[in-house]
Specification:
CATH topology of the largest domain: TIM Barrel
Strand order of the largest sheet: 9-10-8-7-6-5-4-1-11
Shape: globular
Strand content: 15-25%
Structural class: alpha/beta
Number of strands: 19
């Protein structure tokens, strides 16, 4: 069971965009005639009420407005949602409140309005610093607008980040070195750098299937990833997650909550949540269509189309998948406590021998399984990726993938998951303490 003293986040999904990008499979919708924002605000409040009644007392430590394009919201709408979250749960002092923004919707006055509403961190979807590439990606902003948005964010918020997409069609290593260098000159303390992936049921997927869109193969994409790792590290931005780089203390705390398999409520059209209303973690999924979600909330008090109690094995699978994205890796004692299982020692040894996995002994200052002692720290202390693993004779406290393993992360996770075995007697005794 997860007690209510752990961190708790709220994800708020704003589903509207000015234009749908051809690579995007997020739940985003274009409404040229606009939307009734006051009505949507009332629905967000009602769904927050439902979630608060369901999970009970919590103190929110992070809120993330994602989309879609949340920067299309009125600052008063953001303020209304945050005020209601505070009313129902309370928001801890120093909490991280992030809002995603697209450069074309960034204005200094609007950003000041978001800051006044309670937002203290923004994440800007720049995606490329080349105008021609932005057009190919279906973006409606220019490089000049992107740079302006970054400077407005820098002047308005203490913390900001922006995204770039690489491994784009025709992109060479030299192209990426130059573009990434320019991005690092513009960056603050955090960058998100994503390899382009072809998502099902997108225009890019159709073009790719027809042979009209060619992206770098695994070898070339791997070379671009290595360039990314080297250049960010040289500027003091550590790869704390597969696609995220930050100076120590500037990691996205809300995203760390996901990757550390914490508890969060999902609010809004298409939002997912992982809440713990009682003894078992529950997965929630909301209706994706904005108008259909709105109607459900007004009728039922929530817009959920799926609520499922997760088995121990399902929770363990999710924790492994999320946690191995992080440089800090996965706490095997917590995995045993949560799911009653551990990955097979022979498979761990095999993946270590292949250079895909590292193991770490439990920190001497931390009792086995006491993962909450570190949860609010910026990053759980551990040696950086690429350092030699500890001796195989040491007890294993955590596992993590190597930089090489990150390139085949899904395969590593699948192999570990298939090797799950019941945790031993000592694990059960420790979980009962």
């Amino acid at each position: 069971m997860i007690s209510s003293d752990t961190t708790f986040g709220v994800y708020v999904h704003w589903p509207f965009c000015a234009q749908k990008c051809p690579y995007c499979d997020f739940n985003s919708h274009v409404r040229h005639k606009g939307w009734d924002e006051e009505r949507f605000l009332s629905a967000y409040k009602r769904e927050i009420d439902w979630a608060a009644d369901r999970v009970g007392a919590r103190v929110v430590t992070s809120v993330f407005f994602g989309g879609g394009t949340p920067s299309l919201m009125q600052p008063s709408t953001v303020a209304g949602i945050l005020d209601h979250i505070s009313k129902r749960w309370g928001i801890a002092a120093g909490s991280e409140i992030t809002l995603e923004a697209n450069p074309g919707s960034v204005e200094a006055a609007r950003f000041r309005g978001f800051r006044k509403a309670g937002v203290n961190r923004v994440s800007i979807g720049v995606q490329s610093l080349r105008d021609e590439e932005l057009r190919k990606l279906g973006r409606i902003h220019s490089v000049a607008e992107a740079k302006s948005a970054i400077e407005i964010a820098r002047a308005t918020f203490k913390r900001f980040s922006f995204d770039l997409i690489y491994a784009r069609p025709g992109q060479t290593a030299d192209d990426w070195r130059q573009e990434l260098g320019e991005a690092l000159d513009l960056a603050g303390d955090h960058l998100s750098l994503y390899q382009l992936t072809i998502e099902p049921d997108t225009p890019y997927a159709a073009l790719h299937a027809a042979g009209k869109l060619i992206i770098p193969d695994d070898y070339d994409a791997g070379a671009l990833y290595e360039i990314t790792e080297d250049m960010t590290a040289a500027r003091g931005l550590a790869a704390y997650e597969v696609s995220n780089y930050a100076r120590p203390g500037s990691e996205s705390r809300h995203n760390l909550l996901y990757w550390r398999y914490g508890e969060y409520a999902g609010v809004g059209p298409g939002a997912h949540g992982r809440i713990v209303p009682g003894e078992r973690r529950e997965a929630t999924i909301a209706e994706r269509n904005p108008e259909a979600w709105l109607a459900r909330v007004e009728t039922d008090g929530h817009g959920l189309v799926e609520r499922a109690a997760l088995s121990n094995a399902e929770q363990a699978d999710e924790m492994l998948l999320m946690g191995l994205r992080l440089s800090e890796g996965v706490d095997l004692d917590r995995l045993a406590d949560l799911g009653g299982i551990r990955p097979g020692a022979d498979v761990v040894a095999e993946l270590r021998a292949l250079g895909l996995l590292q193991t770490m002994a439990p920190p001497p200052s931390q009792k086995p399984g006491n993962w909450r002692a570190n949860e609010l720290e910026d990053i759980v202390a551990c040696a950086g990726p690429g350092l030699a693993p500890d001796s195989s004779s040491s007890p294993i406290g955590r596992i993590r993938v190597t930089p090489r393993g990150r390139l085949v992360l899904n395969a590593v996770v699948a192999k570990l998951s298939k090797s799950f075995q019941p945790a031993g007697r000592m694990d059960k005794m420790r979980a009962a303490v």
